[in-house]
UniProtKB/TrEMBL annotation:
It is an enzyme of class 2 (transferase). It comes from Rhizophora mucronata. This is Methyltransferase. It is found in: Endomembrane system; Membrane. Residues 112-165, 184-217, 234-249 have a biased composition (Basic and acidic residues). Belongs to the methyltransferase superfamily. GO terms for cellular component: endosome; membrane; trans-Golgi network. The chain crosses the membrane at residues 21-43. GO terms for molecular function: methyltransferase activity. One of its GO terms (biological process) is methylation. It comes from the Eukaryota. Keywords: Glycoprotein, Membrane, Methyltransferase, Signal-anchor, Transferase, Transmembrane, Transmembrane helix.
């Protein structure tokens, strides 16, 4: 690069040798001034930045004077720079040592470059020396390139590290702050980057260095004091890839930080919603109030948790630290609900109404009404207010499957006890909404001192049991109003008698258990609608025709009764087959329907049953590597026919 042949200082031509000498003197003084200024406040560790600024200043001054005669060769090609830098980026560790060595000599190189440029410019004024001048300039720029490439590699490494740490790189900071950047902040950022170089080297070991060498070189060429969009895009892609690679092997799940601890249930411990309830009169605070956004945390296991005791031993004892609650031991221990025995919670099999064991109580009910026929006519029952579910646990011995139901209340962990023991159970409350079951599905509904006020508000809660009970099914009620004569009990019994009569329930038997000193009343739901039309009092009313009895999710309770199905094609119009024939034979109401898989309902049922029978026996039990002796409770997410 050279200057023009004329100077217009006084409007007259000047000899050719005067202007170059003036420029040389001017540039030398500028360099000396800049050098003194920079060394007066720049720390030794920042020589790379100071040298780069000085070199840029030299090129800018010389370029402005010489642009009229020679092309600016500073914009060297990407291919050339790739070849030149091919040996400088073999590894990030070598770059680090090169940059440190370069910091000590960059200032001297810059001063020497400036003097060389001045001499070159004087020689360039001589006729016929343009080619020689071009070679000298290219040689000087080669030196500048070596220094700048090493600086850029350092800046790129620092930028990558900051991108991984969620901090802006030095290039991005420069882009955000503009020419007026606070240099002390810049130096502080660079110092932090150098301190993290060792961490950067370790973090980049997981990346494929061979595939990224060329890409890094191309990025360094473009990566000046002002970051380009290409560089920023590449940095962002690297950051995303690093994040994806990290997420593939490491999951940043956090533990739920709630007062409930291991007992946390999002839809039952949503205190933000519970505190805003207008009333809790009907146990609204025990119902489900799911958060608008599902939590993304992990519920911690209790301290000292151990693998559950195998079934059937788990019916009688579980590890204490798996469900570390003792309030029921204190409150219900005298009724043989639960006790602490060493490292175990033990369950003697008792309950409020059957202190001497659940099996005696189960047989007492059967003896009171033989038509119940445990394990034959009666297969599926709902136990409301189940406590620790001992009734359901012992009904297995009579081939009966019980769904135990209890709320999460002051009794602590009733359903947790049940599930830990290996007994099917669900957290729910008889409150303001229907229970999550379709209509006419339970053969028997049982309540032993379940603390539910069946008779209030038009019998709304008892009418919900009427919806769930099969026509011809039984309601077994064991409570103090049945066998005690206290004024409160007498009043409740009278109200229940009136309500059950208006619902057309037949009081089949009242019997007293001498061993446990309790009594039981057993009611039967009608199998037809004739009684409903003959009632002298029309309350409780029949539900509207549009009210679907099978709708169960988040449906408010209504004080009305659904008609009994009489059409043979409707479920509930007939009693199902006795167990175990019920398991294999298609239910009568499927005959007139199309099945889930497109075939006739009955054929569909048999196909599904045989399919799962083969899959479970051939694959699940023997081909999955699972020790099924440790598996008791299983949730089937798509049951269809229950095959």
């Amino acid at each position: 690069m050279g200057t023009g042949k004329y100077s217009r200082a006084d409007g007259r031509k000047s000899p050719n040798y005067c202007f170059p000498i003036t420029v040389v003197i001017f540039v030398v003084f500028c360099l000396i001034g800049i050098w003194m200024l920079m060394t007066s406040y720049v720390a030794p560790t920042e020589n790379v930045i100071s040298s780069q600024e000085t070199a840029n200043t030299v090129r800018q001054v010389v370029g402005e004077r010489n642009s009229k005669q020679f092309e600016d060769t500073s914009g060297y090609s990407l291919e050339d720079s790739t070849v030149e830098n091919g040996n400088t980026i073999d590894s990030r560790n070598e770059n680090q040592s090169d940059v440190e060595d370069n910091q000590n000599g960059t200032q001297n190189e810059t001063s020497k470059m400036a003097e060389d440029n001045n001499e070159d410019k004087v020689e360039a004024e001589r006729p016929g020396d343009k080619a020689e001048l071009k070679n000298v300039v290219e040689e000087n720029q080669g030196r500048e390139t070596d220094s700048q490439d090493e600086q850029k590699i350092q800046a790129e490494n620092d930028g990558d590290r900051k991108a991984e740490d969620g901090e802006p790189s030095s290039e991005t900071v420069g882009l955000q702050e503009g020419p007026g950047t606070n240099k002390s902040e810049w130096r502080e950022s660079e110092e932090i980057s150098r301190e993290n170089l060792s961490e950067l080297d370790e973090g980049n070991k997981d990346l494929d260095a061979g595939d990224n060498v060329k890409e890094d070189t191309e990025t360094n060429v473009q990566n000046g004091a002002w970051s380009t969009q290409v560089v920023e895009s590449q940095n962002e892609k690297k950051s995303q890839q690093s994040s994806k690679s990290k997420d593939q092997y490491e999951h940043g799940w956090k533990l739920c930080n709630t007062s409930a601890g291991p007992d946390y249930i999002p839809c039952l411990d949503n205190w933000l919603s519970i505190r805003s309830l207008p009333s809790t009169k009907h146990y609204e605070h025990r119902e489900r109030h799911c958060p608008e956004e599902a939590p993304t945390c992990l519920v911690p296991v209790p301290d000292g948790y151990r693998r559950s005791v195998k079934w059937p031993k788990s019916r009688d004892k579980v590890w204490y630290y798996n469900v570390p609650h003792t309030k029921l031991v204190e409150v219900k221990g005298h009724q043989n609900w639960v006790a602490v025995t060493g490292d175990y919670l033990t369950f003697p099999g008792g309950g409020t109404q059957f202190k001497h064991g659940a099996l005696h109580y189960i047989d007492f009910i059967k003896n009171s009404l033989p038509d119940i026929a445990w394990g034959k006519r009666t297969r599926v029952i709902l136990d409301v207010g189940c406590g620790v579910a001992s009734l359901g646990g012992y009904l297995f011995e009579r081939d009966v499957l019980a769904m135990s139901l209890a709320p999460k209340d002051e009794h602590e962990a009733q359903v947790q006890f049940a599930l830990e023991r290996g007994i099917p159970a669900i957290l729910a409350v008889m409150g303001t909404k229907r229970l999550p079951f379709p209509s006419s599905v339970f053969d028997v509904v049982h309540c032993a001192r379940c603390r539910v006020p069946w008779h209030i508000e038009g019998g709304k809660l008892l009418l919900e049991l009427n919806r769930l009970l099969r026509p011809g099914g039984y309601f077994v009620w064991s409570a103090t109003p049945v066998y005690q004569k206290l004024p409160e009990d007498v009043g409740i019994w009278k109200a229940m008698s009136e309500l059950t009569k208006s619902m057309c329930w037949d009081l089949v038997v009242i019997k007293k258990d001498r061993l446990n000193n309790v009594g039981v009343a057993i009611y039967r739901k009608p199998t037809g609608n004739g009684c409903y039309t003959k009632r002298r009092l029309k309350g409780p009313p029949l539900c509207k025709d549009y009210d679907d009895p099978n709708a169960a999710w988040n449906i408010p309770l209504e004080a009305c009764m659904h008609k009994v199905p009489t059409n043979a094609s409707h479920r509930g119009s007939c009693w199902p087959e006795q167990w175990p024939k019920r398991l294999e034979k298609p239910p009568y109401w499927l005959n007139s329907q199309v099945g889930v898989y497109g075939k006739a309902g009955a054929e569909d049922f048999i196909t599904d049953y045989n399919h799962w029978k083969n899959v479970v026996s051939q694959s699940y039990l023997h081909g999955m590597g699972i020790d099924w002796s440790f598996v008791r409770n299983v949730m089937d997410m798509r049951a269809v026919y229950g095959g």
